[in-house]
Structures are given as structure tokens and as C-alpha cells.
Design goal:
The structure holds two protein chains of two kinds. By secondary structure, chain A is mostly helical. Chain A has 13 helices and no strands. The relative contact order of chain A is 0.13. Chain B contains eight helices and 21 strands. The mean pLDDT of chain B is 90. Classes of the chains: A mainly alpha, B alpha+beta. The complex binds adenosine-5'-triphosphate and magnesium ion.
Chain lengths: 312, 367
């Protein structure tokens, strides 16, 4: 135990961290709770001297708001589609990287580069590849198809309006999935590669002696032994997926949708930001709390499912 | 299946470029293992036993030399096609599978015409498990087993697909003394029952001597001697083999041969007519000397340890290389423990001469 005379020293050393946590984590959480349960709370109004009743009106408003369901739907679709794809791809790439001896370090660096690149910048590149409206007049859009449409046309297909005027929701989501998967890969590859390199080589020798085909080595040995890392990657993937926002801004801009249907791809976090901008902090807080509860439930569910499949 | 090793050599390239010293882990190993025999590869740590085993398994490629299974040259054959069973030094059981899944795994990999039905696999797995007496533990994970049980699971996994050759890398090193004794008998029994040519690695000479048909003694990658355990023990080719085999270890003393007589200090202890004059190491097995009033070798008596059937006379001699000179005698023979000195007689066939420089055996006629 620390001598009681020394205790103030301990507190002193801890104080920077504690103060920062109090100001930027504990107080905002508390404040969010407070605002969420004050009916119709808004900062401006509060400063103007208005008072608010305690209640759950904010929550009811969030749920009643028809766009909210759309936000939830888009978020859920993006999550459910991207996490399995990016995890599978990351696994395959990590396994391939791990089995390559020459240039391994170089390839690792290349695969990790997107991680240190700004996601808005990446979004703009993707937007150009899928061709974004606004960079060119709409009437000349046909001349400026991005590289994806060029490839499609090269193989005799018909150009698709991915994100431009008249694009479908499905096409929009497809672009988002490609982008989010690509963006999520480096971190997952890094984690899985680390996991692979810590697996005892002797299991592979044993598998060789047992005459195990390559595919079975992957499914029966590598994946089970990697399951703790996979679980981590999947759970954090879902959590990140439910907070998806900047990726959509990266591709569609702040309008969160194609030019003729702004807000079509809005997500939960996008909804919260919108409410904040309109000085409806009560509504935003309620939305954030609902998002928190959803993430909590999904994570608990994930944990339960994953526990059955994670070894040791 | 007989296994033939022909000039087998393994050289590991040096790690750091500066010193540039490569490691010759196995050096020019030639040996034919007859079908159905149990061979013990014996030697101190780092002498290349595991490396030899891994080359036979195909997990490591020889730098040069050839390996034959029967008449087939398998040198270039990959591990999975060699049809071997291997028990690793630390078992390498798959931690996420139960005992049953571990044992089934090699069978599930069989494809084509060797493919087995689910029931056949289970039957074979249980048969292998019964052989090593772990059929009660089939639903446990490896982490829920004792070292000895893991060992036996590993043996069952290696045996279940009826390998042409069974390779065991220090299979008993993690067991306590009793279990080790029991398990080595079991390995012997299993090997006899299955008739699978088996090579097992150990650094415990007693273990190797007790169950092997043939032992191979290695040192620094070089084979020192090959033969039946008792033959190697009775007729070691050099000082290393003589000192490596036997517990308690052989007594080694410095001496010289002069005019057909072996001298330890001033005492002439043996007539060896026809042997050239030279400096020698003298090796005498503990059971090869016994106290006698008219003995030829005088030692300072330290104490006498009685261990049931046997007694051990512990003495010292200034020319001894070991700290003590030990004689194992029947405990019926009484030794005067109060005496300062003890005189020993030496049995000629337990008495070996080694040239002091080459440490090679110097042979002489026993008269
Ligand atoms: N991959 C490797 N690279 C370089 N040197 C190695 C490698 N594997 C083994 N060696 C060296 O080769 C020699 C023989 O090793 P080996 O593992 O065959 O010894 P061993 O007789 O099995 O010893 P132990 O009884 O300790 O298991 C040792 O000197 C070891 O350091
Ligand atoms: Mg070894």
C-alpha cells in the first residue's frame, strides 16, 4: 500500500489522465443522458432561459421520425454486408502474405498503407473511380464515366450510374460496400497476420505428417487457432460498422446521398450529427443512446455466438 | 519396412554472416534399419537426433545423402506421401480438438481409394486409443490431460493410420520416473504388436538400452557406434560411447601402457601383451571391480552405500577422471568400512583401454 502521506503524489500523477477523462468522457456521457431525458432540449433555447420537462419525448420522436428507420436500415445493411466480406478477404490475404517469403515486409507495408491514408481522401478517389456528380456538368456526365464504368464498357457491358443522378439505392450501397471493405482491410490484415505468426509452426508439421490437404489445414487448423483474433476483428468490425459516417461523406459528400435524393444513405451517426446541427441536442442524445444500446446488444450477441467457436 | 540411410548429411547455414560458421547437424550418416525393429537414436543434447528424425520424416530436406523406405527412394518425397507417423518432442496435439478429433484427424485426411466410412474411422480411432489406454479420455481437450496422457494421445494419433515407419522424438521426456518406465514398456509392446519399424530418439541411455533392438550412439552429428545395446555396452568403440552408456557411469582413470603392462600410478593393474607403449584412459565398469585383499588397484575408501540387493563401494584415486571410483558389488560381500584404503581386483572383460589423444579404443588380448 502507498503510504498515506504519499497518496497525494499518486493522485497528482494520475490527475492529468483523470481530468481529461472527466472532461472529455465522463461529463459528456452524463450530459448526453441528461439531455436525452429532457423533453425537446436544445442548447440555444436553454441559454435563452427555456426550461424542459423530464421525459422520454426525445426517444419517441426519434423512433417516430420516418427517416430514422431508413438510417437504421442503411447502417444495418452496411454492417451485415461488409464485416463478413472484409473479414474473409483479410483472412485470405493474411494467410497468403504469411506464406510468401520474399518481399514479405514490402507487401505488408503496401497492404498497410491505406490504414494511414485519410479516409475522406480515399473516399474522393473512390468517388472518382465510380464517377461523382458535381465534378462535371450533369449533361456531360456520359463523357466522364469513372474507371469502373470504363472497364465495364470495355467488356461490352453497359455503364451504370453508381452514385450520380438517377442511381439506385442498390448501386449506392454496392459502392459503399466496396469502399468500406477496402478501407477496413489493412487493420484486419495486420491483426490476423500477427495472429498467424504466433501460431506454433509444429502444428503445421503435424498436419503435414497427417497428410492434410491445404484447404483443410486452413479450415481445421489455421482458422480455429486464429479464432481469438477473428473474434476481435469481427466484434470491432461490427462496432465500427454501426458508427459508419465519414465513409459516406467521403463518397457522397455531406448530402449523404446522390444529388437527386439527399440523405438517402444517411446512417445513425449521420442522424445524430443532423440533429446537432439543428440545435436539437435532446434528439441527438436520444439517438446516440439508442445507437449505444443497439451496439451493446449486437456485441453481446456476437460474444455469445463467438464464444461457442473460439478456442481457449 | 526397412529404412536405409545413405551418407545422410544436414548442414544448417550460419545465421550471422560475420562468423560464417555453419552447423553440421548430421554428418554422413549411413545405416540400414531392418524391418520391424525398434531403433534407439541416442546422444547428448544437440547431437542431431531430432534432425535425423525430421529428415526421415521429410519435414527437413537433407543437404546430401539418400533415404530409402524398402527399395523406394523417398529422399525427394514429401512428408504427406511417406506414410510415416511422428510423435513430436512436445507432442503438438491440436489444442482446439478433443482427443477423439485429434486421433481421427489423420484418418479424415485419407482420400480416394483409402477413404474410410465414419464408422470405420471411429473403430480405428478407438482401437488406437485402447492400444495406448486412453479410450476413457476421448472427449477431453489436450489441455485437460496430464503430460503422460498427452504423450499417449500423440502416439495414438501417429499409429492410427498404420504408418510404414513410426518416429518418436524423445517420447518419454515429460514423464515422471514411474510412468516413464511403464510407458517405455508400452511402446515396446505396441511396437511388437504392430510390427512397425520404429525409430525413437532419446538422450537417456537407460531408456534406449532397455527397449531397443539396436541403438545408434551419436555425438556432434557423427555416428559413434551402432549395435545391439548389450554389444555396444560390452564393446564400446571409443571413450565417448563407454562413458555415455551405463549407470552408474564407467570409472575412467588416467594411466599408461609400458612394456605390455597397464599402469595406474605406480601399480600395474593388467597384462596387455603386444600393446604399444602409450598414454591411455582406462575405463572400468563399476561391476568390473571388486574389493579383494590381494587386489591390484589401491584406492582411498570414502564410504559404502547399500541399496538393497547391491552395494556401492565409493572410493577415490588421484588418477581418476571422475570424482569417485565406484564399484557395484553384491550387498552380501562385506567391506571393512573403517579401513583407510581398499584394494580392487579387475575383471578383464569390463576393462577398456583408450588412446589418450584419439580417445579410440586400444584392443588387447585377454589372457
Ligand atoms: N533450424 C536450424 N537452424 C540452425 N541450426 C539448427 C537448426 N535446427 C537444429 N540446429 C542445430 O543442429 C544441431 C542438432 O540439433 P537437433 O535438434 O537435431 O539436436 P537433438 O539431438 O535433437 O537435441 P535435443 O536432445 O536437445 O533435442 C544443434 O546444434 C542445433 O543447434
Ligand atoms: Mg531433439
Amino acid at each position: 500500500m502507498v503510504d498515506s502521506k504519499q497518496q497525494w503524489k499518486a493522485w497528482l500523477y494520475l490527475s492529468p489522465a483523470i481530468i481529461l477523462l472527466l472532461v472529455f468522457t465522463v461529463w459528456p456521457i452524463f450530459n448526453t443522458l441528461r439531455m436525452a431525458f429532457l423533453n425537446g432540449y436544445g442548447n440555444m433555447a436553454a441559454m435563452g432561459g427555456a426550461t424542459f420537462d423530464l421525459g422520454i419525448q426525445n426517444f419517441l420522436k426519434v423512433i417516430e421520425y420516418d427517416k430514422f428507420i431508413d438510417c437504421l436500415k442503411t447502417t444495418a445493411i452496411l454492417c451485415v454486408a461488409t464485416v463478413p466480406i472484409s473479414t474473409t478477404l483479410a483472412l485470405l490475404i493474411a494467410v497468403a502474405l504469411n506464406s510468401i517469403k520474399p518481399l514479405q515486409k514490402t507487401l505488408q507495408t503496401i497492404f498497410f498503407l491505406p490504414y494511414v491514408t485519410n479516409s475522406i481522401a480515399i473516399g474522393m478517389v473512390f468517388a472518382t473511380m465510380f464517377n461523382i456528380v458535381g465534378y462535371n456538368p450533369v449533361e456531360r456526365a456520359a463523357d466522364t464515366w469513372g474507371i469502373i464504368n470504363n472497364v465495364i464498357q470495355f467488356f461490352g457491358g453497359e455503364a451504370i450510374s453508381w452514385i450520380n443522378q438517377g442511381s439506385t439505392y442498390t448501386a449506392n450501397i454496392a459502392v459503399m460496400i466496396v469502399y468500406i471493405v477496402w478501407n477496413a482491410l489493412p487493420f484486419k490484415i495486420l491483426i490476423l497476420l500477427g495472429g498467424l505468426q504466433s501460431i506454433n509452426k509444429q502444428y503445421y508439421d503435424a498436419a503435414k505428417v497427417d497428410g492434410t490437404p491445404k484447404a483443410r489445414v486452413l479450415t481445421r487448423i489455421t482458422i480455429p487457432l486464429l479464432s481469438p483474433m477473428l473474434a476481435y476483428v469481427i466484434i470491432t468490425g461490427f462496432i465500427g460498422g454501426f458508427k459508419e459516417y465519414s465513409s459516406i461523406v467521403g463518397i457522397f459528400g455531406e448530402k449523404m446521398g446522390p444529388p437527386d435524393d439527399a440523405g438517402r444513405l444517411n446512417t445513425m451517426v449521420g442522424f445524430v450529427y443532423d440533429a446537432l446541427e439543428k440545435d436539437r441536442q435532446g434528439l441527438a442524445s436520444a439517438g446516440a443512446l439508442i445507437l449505444f444500446v443497439i451496439i451493446l446488444i449486437v456485441t453481446l450477441f456476437n460474444n455469445k455466438v463467438i464464444k461457442k467457436h473460439v478456442h481457449y | 519396412m526397412k529404412v536405409v540411410l545413405e551418407n545422410l548429411t544436414k548442414i544448417f547455414p550460419s545465421r550471422d554472416k560475420k562468423s560464417g560458421k555453419e552447423v553440421v547437424a548430421v554428418n554422413d550418416f549411413t545405416f540400414e534399419i531392418p524391418d520391424g525393429q525398434l531403433v534407439g537414436l541416442l546422444g547428448p543434447s544437440g547431437c542431431g537426433k531430432s534432425t535425423t528424425l525430421y529428415m526421415i520424416s521429410g519435414l527437413q530436406k537433407p543437404s546430401s545423402g539418400k533415404i530409402y523406405f524398402g527399395d523406394d527412394d523417398v529422399t525427394e518425397l514429401s512428408t504427406e506421401n511417406r506414410g510415416i507417423g511422428l510423435v513430436f518432442q512436445n507432442y503438438a496435439l491440436y489444442p482446439h480438438m478433443t482427443v477423439q478429433q485429434n486421433i481421427l484427424f489423420p484418418l479424415q485426411n485419407l482420400g480416394g481409394k483409402d477413404k474410410l466410412s465414419k464408422q470405420e474411422m471411429l473403430d480405428r480411432a478407438y482401437e488406437a486409443a485402447r492400444l495406448v489406454q486412453i479410450d476413457e479420455l476421448m472427449d477431453r481437450k489436450p489441455s485437460e490431460l496430464s503430460g503422460g496422457q498427452q504423450q499417449r494421445v500423440a502416439i495414438a494419433r501417429a499409429l492410427v493410420k498404420m504408418p510404414r515407419v513410426l518416429l518418436l522424438d524423445e517420447p518419454l521426456s515429460n514423464l515422471d520416473a514411474r510412468l516413464r518406465l511403464q510407458t517405455r514398456e508400452e511402446i515396446r509392446r505396441i511396437q511388437k504388436e504392430t510390427g512397425i519399424t520404429t525409430i525413437f530418439v532419446t538422450h537417456d541411455q537407460e531408456e534406449a538400452m532397455s527397449i531397443s533392438d539396436v541403438i545408434v550412439v551419436m555425438k556432434l552429428g557423427v555416428v559413434q557406434q551402432i549395435g545391439k545395446p548389450q554389444d555396444v555396452y560390452d564393446d564400446p568403440k571409443n571413450l565417448f560411447v563407454a562413458t555415455f552408456l551405463g549407470t552408474p557411469p564407467i570409472n575412467v582413470l588416467e594411466g599408461k601402457v609400458e612394456g605390455g603392462k597397464v599402469y595406474i600410478g605406480d601399480e600395474a593393474v593388467m597384462n596387455v601383451n603386444g600393446v604399444e607403449d602409450q598414454n591411455v584412459y582406462i575405463g572400468i565398469r563399476p561391476e568390473g571391480i571388486e574389493p579383494a585383499a590381494d587386489g591390484v588397484l589401491t584406492c582411498k575408501l570414502n564410504n559404502v552405500e547399500v541399496m538393497g540387493r547391491d552395494a556401492s563401494v565409493v572410493s577415490s584415486h588421484e588418477n581418476s577422471v571422475n570424482p569417485v571410483v565406484r564399484a557395484i558389488i553384491s550387498s552380501d560381500i562385506k567391506v571393512d568400512t573403517t579401513a583407510e584404503a581398499v584394494k580392487f581386483n579387475i575383471k578383464p572383460h569390463k576393462f577398456f583401454l583408450f588412446n589418450k589423444d584419439t580417445e579410440e579404443r586400444v584392443y588387447f588380448e585377454v589372457k
